[in-house]
From TrEMBL:
Residues 5-127 form the Amine oxidase domain. Keywords: FAD, Flavoprotein. GO terms for molecular function: oxygen-dependent protoporphyrinogen oxidase activity. GO terms for biological process: heme biosynthetic process. This is PPOX oxidase. The lineage of its organism: Eukaryota, Metazoa, Chordata, Craniata, Vertebrata. It comes from Cepphus grylle.
Amino acid sequence: QVSELGLEGDILPVPGDHPASRNRFLYVGGALHKLPSGLGGLLRPVSPFSQALLWSGVRDLLAPAGTGPDESVHDFVQRRFGREVADIAVDSLCRGVFAGDCRALSIRSCFPALFQAERRRRSVLLGMALGSGEA
């Protein structure tokens, strides 16, 4: 697509060791919030979240797998990781990537790997870590 527009020479690559490739921010409540970039950041609450993100991962490991043929990205993430992750992180992601509302977007269409990971391993985290083989 870039080549179709003749913009190959305008691409500015960002090396993996550059801060721009390691740091992620969310704009919430009129302020920028830096997201944790390492395991240590998952162990304590980081604004704009009210609790450590580690608990969202634990929630995913304990939640039962969905049974319906599809659901919204928001409903899926809320069920797996909690309301704050769905309302803040995933809503921002979907608006940036798809220019759409995560409450109206399909998890199966937008994030098929997450949908399949849950269906095959009962947990998104386990499915992503262990692969897509049958449980």
